[in-house]
Write a structure and sequence with these properties.
179 residues; alpha+beta; Nuclear Transport Factor 2, Chain: A
């Protein structure tokens, strides 16, 4: 019978220095602030219009891509035009939670839950919920969104709730546009 051979011990990953750990925490906090600004600039209707498209566009890289209920939109200028079209939305209020942010040098990924109270241009109140999956790039101007993907869990009329209309997400998504 053959004797088992000894294998080298697995090395534990190199310990990060205090400066590296602080930088990681600072990067994660900057990305959280970036997402908070995104929501702030999308929201409105109580003290001004929704979707401040210039400020929203500035949060993206020049080559950014969004993928939402309106399909793919590529490039900062096209993203600006897309969000400008959303100003027809009289009310929007985003709540994002559960951030999972992973930083790898000058790149990062984020995963967020979102719940949006929104009034469509026809004054229909709706609920939108889903997941944001995002890629970020650290630029000389700070962290920016390079890819934003929104996957709806439900889009439903306020008075119906998500229990009855969850299956209508695709139909409602086409009427609402990306969030």
């Amino acid at each position: 019978m053959k004797k088992p051979t000894r294998t080298a011990k697995k090395r534990s990953p190199a310990r990060k220095t205090l400066a590296q750990r602080v930088q990681l925490l600072e990067d994660i906090e900057e990305i959280k602030q970036l997402k908070a600004l995104y929501c702030k600039y999308c929201d409105g209707g109580w003290a001004g219009p929704t979707h401040d498209y210039d400020r929203i566009a500035a949060l993206f890289t020049e080559d950014a891509v969004t993928d939402g209920t309106s399909g793919l939109t590529a490039g900062r200028e096209n993203i600006r035009r897309l969000y400008r079209s959303y100003q027809a939305t009289p009310f929007a209020f985003h709540r994002v939670t559960n951030p999972i942010i992973k930083v790898n040098g000058n790149r990062a990924t984020g995963n967020w839950h979102v719940l949006v109270a929104l009034t469509r241009p026809d004054n229909q109140a709706i609920w939108i919920a889903g997941i944001y999956d995002e890629d970020y790039l650290k630029t000389r101007d700070g962290w920016r969104i390079q890819r934003l993907k929104f996957t709806p869990a439900f889009i439903t009329r306020y008075e119906q709730g998500w229990g009855r209309e969850r299956g209508l997400a695709a139909q409602a998504a086409a009427e609402v546009g990306p969030r």
